[in-house]
Amino acid sequence: LRLGHGAAWHRSKSTAHPDVKERTLVAVKPDGVQRRLVGQIIQRFEQRGFKLVGLKMLQVSEDLLSQHYCQLTSKPFYPSLVDYMTSGPVVVMVWEGHNVVQSSRTMVGPTNPAAAPTGTVRGDFSIHVSRNVVHASDSLEGAQREIQLWFQGKDLLNWDCCDQSLTVE
Ligand code: ADP
């Protein structure tokens, strides 16, 4: 890698592996917004090297939530999950980069904060499964489904991050 060399910059850009376009959905849940954790959570994804391509704040409807959590609607905790997730605004983001789906899950930590290692978002900022601060898609297919559910295509931006050749080959 020759930093500052024009030709090397263009070469690394044009040969970049297509999986740097992988995208995932991350949401700061109402407890995270109320506790003013939005900035710290965004900072972790920025400093890791991922690229923000979509961001919005909204009050979630029960309808959107039932689609988002379609596999959980028959769970005993679902009614309290709806109360929690509709208790205030959420901040929803789409992050892009190499292996971003799996890396985001690792950064967020296990569903139950009691099992989440220190250094993960849930391990650092939460103690109970019912208030675990953040969401991250759990698979490539899940990410695609959730991104389509929460965002319109026009609200996701394709932009070149000037340091991309410093974070991936
Ligand atoms: P994850 O958010 O880690 O992908 P799940 O999809 O299994 O986990 O669950 C979705 C969300 O439902 C969790 O993040 C949490 O907010 C809530 N939840 C899951 N299990 C429980 C539970 N036993 N009690 C209360 N809330 C729960």
UniProtKB/TrEMBL annotation:
Its main location: other. Its EC number is 2.7.4.6. GO terms for cellular component: lamellipodium; mitochondrial intermembrane space; mitochondrial matrix; nucleus; ruffle. Keywords: ATP-binding, Cell cycle, Cell projection, Cytoplasm, Kinase, Magnesium, Metal-binding, Nucleotide metabolism, Nucleotide-binding, Nucleus, Transferase. It comes from the Eukaryota. It is an enzyme of class 2 (transferase). Residues 21-158 form the Nucleoside diphosphate kinase-like domain. One of its GO terms (biological process) is GTP biosynthetic process. Its cofactor is Mg(2+). It is a peripheral membrane protein. Coiled coil: none annotated. The active site is at 135 (pros-phosphohistidine intermediate). GO terms for molecular function: ATP binding; metal ion binding; nucleoside diphosphate kinase activity. Major role in the synthesis of nucleoside triphosphates other than ATP. This is Nucleoside diphosphate kinase. The gene is SNX11.
